Amino acid sequence: DKGNHRHFMLKEIYEQPVVVAQTLRSYLRPLEERVALPDMEFDLASVERVAIVACGTASYVGMIGKYWIEQLARVQVEVDVASEFRYRDPVLTPNMLGVVISQSGETADTLAALRHMKAAGLTTAGIINVPTSSMAREVDLLLPTHAGPEIGVASTKAFTCQLAVMAALAVNLARAKGQLTPEAERDIVHHLQEVPEAMSRAIAHDEEIAAMAPKIAAARDVLYLGRGPDYPLALEGALKLKEISYIHAEGYASGEMKHGPIALIDDTVPLIVLAPSGPLFDKTVSNMQEAQARGALVVLISDADGIAQAGENTIATIEMPKVHPIIAPLVYAVPVQLLAYHVAVAKGTDVDQPRNLAKSVTVE
Ligand code: M6R
């Protein structure tokens, strides 16, 4: 049931504050100001390396997880798309934790990768939405997301719920590795508690994003830029756009612009820049300005400070609430999803059932 929404995708975007709160509820212990995981039969302190494997949107959660886990827990993380991991003969050692991420829990390549990790003797954890799925049954440690059924082929609420669980995993690893003080953990708990409200404030920009969508819908190519954890989000923005609007889109790490993609820029190319104010802001903005000098049609997604500093010469700005960098990917996911959605609606494509795609990819 779509309720009063025109598409499942829009309904699922709007559900995010509730389902992310629901997911966080099973990991946050507000009274103790701690982040907890379900009981497990192994000791996270013994984890020396992490291998994260997933496909599509879920693989971008893995990439964001790499930033979080390496920064907070000082544990080395490798991220692969499952179809590559299976066949590249990766070096797997028993002190590794293997992590799979999947909405359906049935994606053929991810399931095969999970079995490969188990056969190599790894302990495995799975961030999975469907609790009765094959992956949910086969992982050693099930870390459920509570997104509820996701109907739209374009993943939205599963993505942000996966991020919430990934943050919980990163914090637990960090504590187990002796890298996190109780005060630092308390701060993270508070920031995570702010997520649902911040997501609601992001959703409030829906109409404004709908109004700018026709400008993007006319483009042949669209580029997305981000740095740090906003780089995988740029990849996610580009995937979402091509998936449902059929416009060619690419995401780049901002610093890569001048290593090639800037050659694509002219005054017909929209450039969606994901840049929360903070330590990485100035660098991303300088990459953005190089593109603006070549005529790029910039949409800057930032907070009030960022927009005050760099909002000039853009075709549009979308103002996000000012949030701590650790939760920014959850909040900035919302305008990225809404933009893809409204561009697709403006183009008149079948948003919930895009051509050539299946919700669950159970063959390789
Ligand atoms: O069910 P899974 O999370 O394993 O699915 C993985 C991908 O097929 C999926 O995220 C796909 O990329 C989405 N259609 C993206 O919106």
Show the helix and strand layout.
Blueprint: H1 8-25, E1 28-29, E2 34-35, E3 49-54, H2 56-73, E4 76-81, H3 82-87, E5 96-102, H4 108-119, E6 123-128, H5 134-138, E7 141-144, H6 157-176, H7 182-193, H8 195-203, H9 206-217, E8 221-226, H10 230-245, E9 248-253, E10 270-274, H11 281-292, E11 297-303, H12 304-310, E12 316-320, H13 328-347
Helix pairs in contact: 1-6, 1-8, 2-6, 2-10, 8-13, 9-13, 10-13
The chain binds 5-amino-5-deoxy-1-O-phosphono-D-mannitol.
5-amino-5-deoxy-1-O-phosphono-D-mannitol binds near residues 57, 102, 153, 154 and 155.
Low-confidence stretches: none
**DSSP helical segment count:** 13
Strand content: 15-25%
Structural class: alpha/beta
Proportion of helical residues: 40-55%
Strand order of the largest sheet: 4-3-5-6-7
Quaternary state of the chains:
single chain
Which ions, cofactors or small ligands are bound in this entry? 5-amino-5-deoxy-1-O-phosphono-D-mannitol
Organism: Sphingomonas echinoides
EC number: 2.6.1.16
Subcellular location: Cytoplasm
Function: Catalyzes the first step in hexosamine metabolism, converting fructose-6P into glucosamine-6P using glutamine as a nitrogen source.
